[in-house]
Amino acid sequence: MPETVIIGAGIQGATLALAALERGVCPILVDRDDQPSGASVNSYGIVHGGLRYLQSMNIPRWVRSRRAQNWYIDRYPHQVRPLRCVMPLYAGAPRSPRLFALARGFDRMLRTALGQHVPLPEDGACSRQEVLQAYDVASHGLLGGAVWYDAQLLNPPALLREMLAEVEQRGGVVLRSTEVTGLIEQGGRLQAVQLRNASDGREQRIAADRLFDCGGAQAGRCMGPARRVPSAAVLAFNLLMDIPAPPASDAYALSPTPGRGRSFFFRRYGAATLVGTFYRPAPGILSPEPTAEDVRSALSSIRQCLPNVELDEGSVLATYAGLLPDRDGSGRALHPGDRHLRPGPEGYHMLVSGKLTTAPLLSEQVARRLWPAAPLPRAGGWRPRHA
Ligand SMILES: Cc1cc2nc3c(=O)[nH]c(=O)nc-3n(C[C@H](O)[C@H](O)[C@H](O)COP(=O)(O)OP(=O)(O)OC[C@H]3O[C@@H](n4cnc5c(N)ncnc54)[C@H](O)[C@@H]3O)c2cc1C
């Protein structure tokens, strides 16, 4: 009997495997690494929501991110904590206290109207003095701070390990250190998937009628060069810095130009400060490694965000990086949305999510569409040959 195979044990593949199992489909989840190692484990770990998206009046995104916050909090409460996010606001800047007060009111209204109750504290504001006492940000023109709560994943690798254990407990198969190297099709239909064991190079083939490619920025490569892969990569990275950190419960969202433009999060991480996320186009790159120039450019942004803090290249303790799918195949801009594409033979699906936040919703949406009525779980499915 042909199998359902999922490529990639990152957040997208793991949540799709769980959604399939909930509908009685036992998938084989395959990852080339033996431990989770892709973008999901190197992310900043924030399940974004609320005020962040109301600044740009992106209501569909607001609804999805609120639902996503609920998804994580309901299912994995021990892996999530509320993260108090503070954004300093400055005189004469577009992000004003008035704009945030409006967004807060709108957020409350939407929560009530759409019944989107999220078990996170209410958004609010704090004074100039409170901001300066908590963190040494630029003080010139500082009016106060906007405060909102996101959900923070305490330990993304541990969350993924828990999800994979759940997949196995419920009857799915997880093949670690195994790469999907190709697919076999006949008459425009998927017939089988070609695998290679990463440790001993052994190859094997599994008869499959459905393949879900959740390979992140590498999705589509298993189809070979003949088919056009609709995404190139964007490099994203965070820096672990030996610089002062804000209070442990908080993340500060700071911009190089106070009150406007891109902002970066600063939060305590052990005895250090995790700063991110920095992006740059990286089409064609397979390994996510920031260059010395990337780090210098990030440090220059951090200096602008924290003008009173001394830092240099020696302040960088570690980098956490990943590749993300881009918007249009040029690698110039990140694709923030979720995509379910079918660029290959019948039976081949590609799930590309730009955010850890909404990956579980994309998985559930696809599972609902493909397996609307849950069949009974099939007993004794495929097992690895060496088992
Ligand atoms: C530095 C950084 C910070 C981020 N911060 C946030 C944040 O705070 N909040 C947020 O919502 N999002 C954030 N993101 C985005 C988020 O992490 C990603 O959108 C999400 O993790 C992508 O998950 P994924 O499962 O699609 O890909 P990945 O996690 O990259 O997983 C893909 C997996 O597929 C495997 N694979 C690929 N090809 C094959 C193959 N042929 N055979 C076998 N295995 C294969 C890889 O080994 C990998 O394990 C951040 C990303 C980065 C890099």
From TrEMBL:
<dbReference type="Pfam" id="PF01266">
    <property type="entry name" value="DAO"/>
</dbReference>
<protein>
    <submittedName>
        <fullName>FAD-dependent oxidoreductase</fullName>
    </submittedName>
</protein>
<dbReference type="GO" id="GO:0004368">
    <property type="term" value="F:glycerol-3-phosphate dehydrogenase (quinone) activity"/>
</dbReference>
<keyword id="KW-0285">Flavoprotein</keyword>
<keyword id="KW-0560">Oxidoreductase</keyword>
<dbReference type="GO" id="GO:0006072">
    <property type="term" value="P:glycerol-3-phosphate metabolic process"/>
</dbReference>
<feature type="domain" description="FAD dependent oxidoreductase">
    <location>
        <begin position="4"/>
        <end position="368"/>
    </location>
</feature>
<comment type="similarity">
    <text>Belongs to the FAD-dependent glycerol-3-phosphate dehydrogenase family.</text>
</comment>
<dbReference type="InterPro" id="IPR006076">
    <property type="entry name" value="FAD-dep_OxRdtase"/>
</dbReference>
<dbReference type="InterPro" id="IPR036188">
    <property type="entry name" value="FAD/NAD-bd_sf"/>
</dbReference>
<dbReference type="InterPro" id="IPR000447">
    <property type="entry name" value="G3P_DH_FAD-dep"/>
</dbReference>
<keyword id="KW-0274">FAD</keyword>
